[in-house]
Amino acid sequence: MEIQLHDTGRRFDQEWVFRGITARFVSGGRYAVLGPNGSGKSTLLKILSGYLSPSEGRVEFGQGNQSINVDDIFRHLACAAPYLELIEELTLAEHVKFHRLHKPLVKGLTDEALIERMELVHAKDKLIRHFSSGMKQRAKLALACFSDTPMLLLDEPTTNLDQAGVAWYEQAVADTSHDRLVVVCSNVEREYRFCDHLIQIMDYKP
Questions:
Q1: Is 31 left (phi over 0), alpha (psi -120 to 50) or beta?
Q2: Would the pTM of this model clear 0.85, i.e. be above it?
Q3: For residue 8, which of 61, 53, 68 has the smallest C-alpha distance?
Q4: Closest Cα to residue 136, out of 185, 183, 82, 188?
Q5: For 116-128, how does the pLDDT look when each residue is reduced to its tens digit (9 = 90+)?
Q6: What are phi and psi of 6, to 5 degrees?
Q7: Fold of the domain spanning 2-204
């Protein structure tokens, strides 16, 4: 999997969020997009996911020697972010089953095994709406990390997690990030300390 940004910028109305980003993201690389709240980290992640188009420059997606149309990039990624909600009318078991219809789980992982990895077996038949914020975050992260996709995008991944939840997140990423293209948006070191490439979004402010 490969994403290339060529002099990429994004603005809303007349206000530029960032400009002039030229970067290459490849499978096996772990990238952290860093900056304070409101600096544009999530906007860049949405461009990398194909959800937003750049206002200037261009973005290229590819796998192997084949280019990928931006309309198809969602098939190749899994994402966990504060602005992506779970379906609260479903139980956890129903949500995992629904998710698997659209994103296959990593090879050999069953629905039941995934819920065990979440450490939420006791809540598998509980409606998501009755979950605590920490339980919801574990579910979001597990559904993203354990999906069989070449790209993993994480935005503020330890939001609402306690110390045990942070340790769980670190292990989940360690277990599932091999050979994937991983991008983490964060301003909290514990969320991205495994990353080997750092991008400071403030470097691209006009």
A1: beta
A2: yes
A3: 53
A4: 82
A5: 999 999 999 999 9
A6: -120, 105
A7: Rossmann fold (3.40.50)
